[in-house]
Specification:
Blueprint: H1 3-12, H2 15-21, E1 43-44, H3 75-81, H4 84-100, E2 105-106, H5 130-145, E3 153-156, E4 169-171, H6 174-181, H7 183-190, E5 196-199, E6 203-204, E7 207-208, H8 213-223, E8 229-231, H9 240-245, H10 265-273, H11 278-298, H12 317-327, E9 329-333, E10 347-351, H13 376-384, E11 389-393, H14 421-424, H15 436-459, E12 462-468, H16 489-499, E13 504-508, E14 524-528, H17 535-543, H18 565-568, E15 577-579, H19 588-593, E16 611-623, E17 628-638, E18 644-654, E19 665-674, E20 679-687, E21 693-695, E22 700-702, E23 706-713, E24 719-727
Parallel strand pairs: 1-2, 3-5, 4-6, 4-15, 5-8, 10-11, 10-12, 12-13, 13-14
Antiparallel strand pairs: 6-7, 9-14, 16-17, 17-20, 18-19, 18-23, 21-22, 23-24
Helix pairs in contact: 1-11, 2-11, 3-12, 4-5, 4-12, 5-7, 12-17, 13-17, 15-16
The structure holds beta-D-glucopyranose (BGC).
Beta-D-glucopyranose is lined by residues 45-46, 107, 154, 233-234, 365, 418.
């Protein structure tokens, strides 16, 4: 359908019909206009796969037998692959399944910056660095939208905590906003051509993000040229007039009084009352409808030409497993204790409740009704194939402790109540009241499990520990109170390492945990995320060396939450107003610039082979006021005995900065696969953005002339080679 035809459609719509197109008429759908052949617009969560279906006006699960889907690695896992091609294949699969399930817009990806490791939704996001986020969100969005399905990049903007998420008011400098919090969204819009953006719940500088003139009209529409649909977060709209005048196109919420949504009857009343200039109001309405219909048209919803999707295709499982494999991060491997040699192990002991736990159905709106989920224990069983006796001991006691988002077949999902402040203010699950009997029961169970595990550990040929977090901690609606491992795992791991110093320690979690209680004593450490339905298999493959690990941290692992700048400033979770006083010094930009030691730096990850990277050289190919191009080359060799992948990282530092800058910033990276003994020359291009900062006075990004150091690095702490260039233009 041509754009002219879309305009004709708009001219045929009544005010009521226009209103029907711009607000929810069900929890995940609009009404559509049957008379003109405009179908309802159906959305669905979310970032880890297509969510199960709820009733149109009740948060009760419908209980379909056919909404089991592929469970994808969470976004942090995806980010840990540092692999653009896998971001694309993951997006492609997500879009295909969304389309296959009859959805028009998938409410993903989530790309908020990890300002604090305590943010409950960290697992849904891509870590702490705007460049890494930007590079991965573009292929991810493109992959989704290849299926005639819209993405919905969320949550725009500065939605970096769950505590008081509905109205916390963020004060952030324009520079930090532009350099840290917005680049991922800008890349998704300008390079990824995303068709959907979701406004955030929180406020920015006093105004709710879901009707933020500056964010929507100035930045998104005018500066970035966004012509797609801006959807509110569910219940994020608070004012009819502001919603009308801002660039918001579609209001969604969690209550079922659909006619009373701000952009429903109250909007018609507002226009009819004469309180707003009718001409302006109608023009605004048309704008919203135009955005929606144009996207529908691009998705071929209006012309019968739409591509078919599909879901649970077995052929897709290979790419899912590959993403899971590449997301796993090897953090420690003293004396090459890993991989384990399965031929030498007759009796294997697996300890830790996470070995036996499935995670897909938790976390809030990112929950998934997975077709299957291979737990680590199952992965190990599948891999060892009956040749090894495998014993499992939980080691610690985890009774599910009543996460507010948990849903079961016959009770309402926590989302129904998610606008209720009482439910969102509690800082973390540890704050949930437990009776003294419950406490005692937990203690007894923990003692019992600990004893059993330690006893069994003495007998086994090898011991693998699988602990970490669950979605009682990594969850929407709540932040963690601290980085401590729950369920008394610190004591268990420390004791275990005394009995079995060769224990292989692995963590399954969506965010960093404090491991200082036993870290030095653990010879090996593997970090796996909620890595999707194939995650347990991928972990087993890494432990036993079928796969050479190549994941790298997309976020710094501080020793302790007290080291995090937001916490240092007392601004996480802060009060009603949160001042982002750390400014641009988020993540490694802070730890690195202010010499704060961390447990594991940003970009860190080991392999079973060794790589040597040397000989960095740079050539300034273009240096004009408008355009900069610097070609950086270096050599990389795999000097170990097996094939593997390295992530070469290029950080840029301004030698004599005119404004305060971070010690260095990631500006290029490449994941490189090398055979054993292979050497290769690699070249990467740095463009103007690699040298810019946001100039608050001039209201634009600028690159100053001067000397820049280009650092070739294995991670934010380990620089292996440096060269320098001179830029003359600015
Ligand atoms: C979440 C969104 C989600 C929406 C719809 C909200 O509570 O913040 O990320 O897409 O619900 O379920």
């Amino acid at each position: 359908m041509t754009k002219e035809k879309v305009e004709k459609l708009i001219s045929q719509l009544t005010l009521q019909e226009k209103t029907d197109l711009i607000h929810g008429n069900g929890f995940f759908t609009t009404k559509g206009v049957e008379r003109l052949g405009i179908p309802p617009f159906i959305t669905s969560d979310g970032p880890r796969g297509v969510r199960k279906d709820f009733g149109n006006d009740s948060w009760r699960e419908v209980g379909l037998s056919y909404d089991y889907v592929s469970y994808l690695p969470c976004n942090t896992a995806l980010a840990a692959t540092w692999n653009r091609a896998l971001a694309h294949s993951t997006g492609k699969l997500l879009g295909k399944e969304a389309r296959g399930r009859g959805k028009d817009m998938i409410l993903a990806p989530g790309i908020n910056i990890m300002r604090s490791p305590l943010c409950g939704r960290s697992f849904e996001y891509m870590g702490e660095d705007p460049y890494l986020v930007s590079e991965l969100v573009v292929p991810l969005v493109q992959g989704i939208e290849e299926n005639d399905v819209s993405s919905c990049v969320k949550h725009f903007a500065v939605n970096n905590q769950e505590t008081r998420r509905l109205d916390v008011d963020v004060e952030v400098s324009e520079r930090a906003l532009r350099e840290i919090y917005l680049p991922g969204f800008e890349a998704a819009v300008k390079r990824g051509r995303a068709k959907g953006i979701m406004g955030a719940y929180n406020k920015l500088r006093g105004t709710h993000c879901c009707h933020h003139q500056y964010l929507f009209n100035e930045i998104l529409r005018k500066e970035w040229g966004f012509e797609g649909i801006i959807v509110s977060d569910w219940g994020g709209v608070h004012d009819t007039k502001e919603a009308l005048m801002s660039g918001l196109d579609m209001e969604m919420s969690v209550t079922n009084d659909f006619d009373q949504y701000y952009m429903a009857q109250p909007l018609i009343k507002l226009i009819e009352s004469g309180e707003v200039d009718e001409k302006t109001a109608l023009a605004k309405m048309d704008e919203k409808v135009r955005h929606i219909l144009n996207v529908m048209n691009e998705l071929h919803m209006l012309d019968g030409e739409r591509r078919a999707g599909g879901y649970n295709d077995y052929a897709d499982k290979a790419s899912l497993r590959q993403t899971a494999r590449e997301s796993i991060v090897l953090l420690k491997n003293d004396q090459d204790i890993l991989p384990l040699d399965r031929k030498k192990i007759k009796k294997l002991l697996v300890i830790g409740e996470n070995a036996n736990r499935q995670h897909a159905s938790g976390g809030g709106s990112a929950e998934i009704k997975a077709l299957y989920e291979i737990t680590p224990l199952m992965g190990i069983e599948m891999l060892l194939g009956g040749n090894t006796e495998i014993l499992y001991k939980p080691g610690y006691y985890n009774e599910d402790n009543g996460n507010i988002w948990a849903s079961t077949g016959d009770s309402e999902n926590g989302q129904a109540d998610s606008l209720n402040q009482d439910n969102v203010e509690s800082p973390a699950p540890v704050a949930i009241e437990v009776s003294s009997e419950q406490r005692q029961h937990r203690q007894e169970m923990n003692e019992k499990y600990l004893k059993e595990a330690l006893e069994a550990a003495k007998e086994a040929d090898a011991v693998i520990y699988v602990g970490g977090l669950t979605h009682d901690y990594d969850t929407e609606g709540q932040d963690r109170a601290d980085m401590k491992l729950p369920y008394e795992q610190d004591r268990l791991i420390a004791e275990l390492l005394k009995v079995r110093p060769d224990t292989v320690v692995t963590m399954v979690a969506g965010s960093p945990v404090d491991m200082s209680a036993w870290l030095e004593d653990a010879p090996s450490l593997i970090y796996s995320w909620y890595a999707g339905m194939e995650g347990g298999m991928a972990l087993a493959e890494v432990i036993f060396g079928e796969v050479n690990p190549s994941g790298h941290l997309p976020e710094t692992f501080p020793f302790h939450e007290k080291d995090c700048p937001a916490t240092v400033l007392g601004e996480f979770p802060g009060g009603d107003k949160v001042h982002y006083g750390e400014d641009i010094f988020v993540g490694y930009r802070y730890y690195d610039t202010y010499d704060v030691p961390v447990a594991f730096p940003f970009g860190y990850g080991l392999s079973y082979t060794d790589f040597v990277m040397t000989g960095i050289r740079a050539e300034v190919v273009e240096d004009t006021a408008k355009s900069t191009a610097v070609k950086v080359s270096f050599d990389i060799s795999n000097i170990g005995a097996r094939a593997g992948a390295a992530v070469a990282q290029i950080y840029v530092a301004d030698k004599y900065p005119k404004v305060k800058k971070a010690a260095k910033e990631l500006r290029a990276f490449e994941k490189l696969y090398l055979e054993a003994g292979e050497t290769r020359e690699v070249s990467l291009m740095l463009e103007r953005e690699a040298f810019t900062y946001y100039d608050e006075e001039a209201h634009c990004f600028r690159a100053d002339a001067g000397s820049y150091m280009l650092m070739l690095a294995k991670n934010a702490e380990e620089i292996v080679d440096i060269t320098e260039i001179e830029l003359r233009s600015e």
